[in-house]
Amino acid sequence: MFILIKYGANETLLCNPTCAVVNLLNSIKRRSGHADLTIDVADETGLVKELDAHKYDYAYKHLGTEGTYVLMEKQMVFVDEHPQCAYVPLLDEPTKIFPSFNVRVPNMEKKKKKPTTKSPSPAGMKGIRSKKGLTTGGTSRAPSRKR
Q1: Labelling 110: which of 65, 96, 133, 143 has CA 20 to 30 A away?
Q2: Which Pfam families does the entry mention (predicted)?
Q3: DSSP for 106-132?
């Protein structure tokens, strides 16, 4: 259960992803000498993982338990006075090592949520008839016998 992080002049860090994302990123920053940067990682194709959005999740949920990743610097860039994130690989010449490397960010389109109706509470279910004519919800008790 280890991942490889490539950076610099083809340097490699061996990391264990069975920890919180925030701890993994702090370890990578310290060990790679990039403590002053905001970092993220991208897979071998250049897909940025945007780990900072999942700081308290286990890293293996987003990275898997094995694989090779490229260390990326996350920069804030202003386009038409609107802030946007730009990612710069911290690996020298990543396309020489990974020929299909092309930096891209996953689409974060917000899915339209269907309006939901409140389901009745179990107390509100008493007396509602199902298709078979039986009552649903609540508990039915047999009359108690006095002895």
Answers
A1: 65
A2: Il2rg
A3: ---PPPPPPP-PPPPPGGGGTT-B-TT
